[in-house]
Amino acid sequence: MEVLLPALVRGLGIGSTYALLAVSIVVIYRATEVVNFAQPALMILGAYFTSLFVTSIGLPFPVGVVAAMVAMAAVGALTERVAMRPLVGQPVFAAAMVTVGVLIVLTAVANRLIGPDILTVGDPWGLERLEFGTIAIFQVDVAKIVLSLGAIGAVGLLLKRSRIGLAMRATSLDQETALAQGVDVGRMFSLAWAMSAALAALAGMLIGTGAGGVEATTALVALKALPVIILGGIDSIQGAVVAGLVIGVAESLARAYQPEYAPWLGANFDIIVPYLVLIVSLMVRPYGLFGTPEVQRV
Amino acid sequence: MSTRILSEALTGTSVDLPAGTPLLEADGIELRFGGTRAIDGVGFDVRPGELFAVIGPNGAGKTSIFNCISGVYRPQQGSIRFLGAELVGERPDRIAKRGVARTFQNIELFDNLTVVENLMLGRHQHLDYGVLDAMRYLGRARRAELANRRIVEDIVDFLEIAAQRKLPVGMLPYGVKKRVELGRALAMEPKLLLLDEPVAGMNAEETEDMARFILDIRSELDTAMILVEHDMGLVMDLADRVMVMDFGRRIALGEPAAVQADPAVIQAYLGEPEGST
After folding, report:
1. What was the pLDDT predicted at B138?
2. Interface A-B: count of C-beta contacts within 8 A
3. pTM for the structure as a whole
4. Per-domain residue ranges for chain B?
5. pLDDT for the residue numbered A21
């Protein structure tokens, strides 16, 4: 138990952050049908803004986090307006390629801003632990779970219950018909990017908490969101949550047990575990755990 | 079963215009694709509460007229005024907000969404809360969603598609899809309804049902409609006035009986009379 429970909590903590990143990709996909590869850059910029507002400027932590999310929402909407809007009506593959370009540009900007140092986001959790007898879990993992799932829940409700979510889905399915219903398609695109960038900022902050810190290479963590969205089904928020948690826990358990029980697999085996989970599950369900199979009348 | 009738649910469809003022006034519309003139100087007006039909052979420019009114195409010349506002140059979503709803010739529904969700999209512009409201005032946003949901359910009852309301539209048969599309246009509480071949490809029974719905909408809501249709029987039975088009030009405009007797119309539909060549 001394190994298992902390490993589980750590897995759920990192897994919920993966889920948050995956949801930020799903949000853009559901409005535009474009897979946004620029998400790692949005995440790292969000972490930078949090550090700027809290550590450098000295705002209280919660205020700084919200300010960073708002700042990133603006960055997201601006990116959409400048880089993505001209591609409306073009093949989504072209748009996805442009997001790779956006990734390169924004990553360069983030590297310049962050510089060679490791920044701290000024979180109140640090390495504090909660002790239950002989079992100790990190506060930061609990914070990751609560904040990630809370944010995902709020966005999920907004998309499921409000007219905005329905209009976004309609926009992704058929822009011309959405226009004929009075849906302002351009506004839906900016909204999706703004929401997505704000979620990415929150994820970036969470990645930077605890022992993490923020440096330029932290962006690579966001690559874990790719197996998560593929496993969860790219248009499903529940899927992203379940897949994120599964992958986080699998990774964490592998790190806790593999060196002891299967040392012949070598060091750092846990890094490839998410992709193994992905490959195996895709053999069974090619459209992901919760993805929408194409609706067809037969 | 809902006890409300359609005219109670949809109150925004009526227009108040001084007598003799047309609801829609199109003047000298000219639409070119390269060297082809899809519409060649066509003008007409639609009066409040009128059922105005546009007929003509394939490629005559009927659907192009719809696309000009709804903002999908932008005619190079001419003007289309609706309730005093110029529609040429407006964005399609703004035109929809002004009260112009349409159905499409080749059904443009959202196949992955359910019947009710498709109809709720028609309510989009009537749900007047923003993103911030949706996040802060869950109460207000929720009330607005519920009120609009009720209207949608009334429309579902009216069109007799209650049994399919939770099914994804992609799974429905053709005739039902056509009804759902009509329902979505109705949900917008349009002041002008554009129906693009509402009975194309339907059997006699389905055609009769659709004709009944169109007549009911007319008698209950007094909504003005423009109908593009190939089914001559339907047009002659339903329409107040008919405009006949051929090769992008208007060749006749008038009451159904008069149009039917017009030599130019007979020629367009049946070819040159014998002995004239």
Report:
1. 65
2. 94
3. 0.82
4. 22-99+190-270
5. 95
DSSP 3-state percent helix, strand, coil across chain B (nearest 5): 40, 20, 35
Is ipTM over 0.90?
no
Token pair for residue A104? 């390169």
Query: Could you tell me if A66 lies within 8 Å of chain B, comparing CB atoms?
Result: no
How far apart are the C-alpha atoms of B155 and B121, rounded to whole Å?
13
Distances in Å between the Cα of A131 and the Cα atoms of A5, A16, A137, B127 are: 12, 22, 7, 50
Give the span between the Cα atoms of B142 and A14, in whole angstroms: 34
Band the pLDDT of B44: cuts 50, 70, 90. Answer: very high
Q: Right CATH number for B22-99+190-270 from 2.170.270.10, 3.40.50.2300, 3.40.50.300, 3.40.50.12160?
A: 3.40.50.300
- The answer to whether the CB atoms of A166 and B112 lie below 8 A apart is no
| Domain ranges within chain A, ordered by starting residue | 4-218
B127/B147 Cα distance (integer angstroms): 9
Average pLDDT over residues B82-86: 91
pLDDT digits (tens, 9 = 90+) for A216-265: 788 888 888 888 988 888 888 999 999 999 999 999 999 999 888 888 88
Q: Provide the token pair at B88.
A: 């040429």
Among the partner-chain residues A161, A176, A181, the one whose CB lies closest to the CB of B124 is A181
Give B94's contacts (C-beta < 8 A, 6+ positions apart).
Answer: B71
